Amino acid sequence: MKRNLGLFTFAVSSLLSVASMAQDTGSDNHTITVKVPEVAILDLHSSESALDFDASFVQTSPLEAGTKITDAEDNSNTWLNYSSILKDGGVESRHIDVKASEVVPGIAIKVTAGSATGGKGTLGGSDGTVTLTVEDQSIVSAIGSAYTEDGPNKGHQLTYVFEALDDNYGDLLAKDYAVQVTYTLADN
Question: pTM of this prediction?
């Protein structure tokens, strides 16, 4: 009988040990997986009704032989908006490149991105004035995880300046040029 009592005691203590492991305690926990996507998007907005605009050079008035054409008016109606979330372990920043579909002979088209208005995060800074070419050039750099907000008067205001170049005045031809300007948000 002593032998059965020892076996019984062992069985009861084993059950109590298992039961105590399954008991609730004063705290508990669980895991929530938070998924943040990588984001890299941009768009343009205009404070006017349309993004496209004309830049017209004009003959001086009153007409006078020997005068240079008057440069087209500057345009500051376009706003550059972007959203960026960097990938963990990826690039440390992004930049925005700009390029033109073609160069107008005898004309310089310059664009400057102003300081960011609105938004939050690591907003990029202007790289100064860029004279457009068919090659990508950085216009905004040091963009981290940030957003500029959406629409006109948000993000970076773009100012276009048009200049008939004295050194290339002989290249001017009377023609309408449709120059497409492309902005690209790219990893560094």
Answer: 0.84
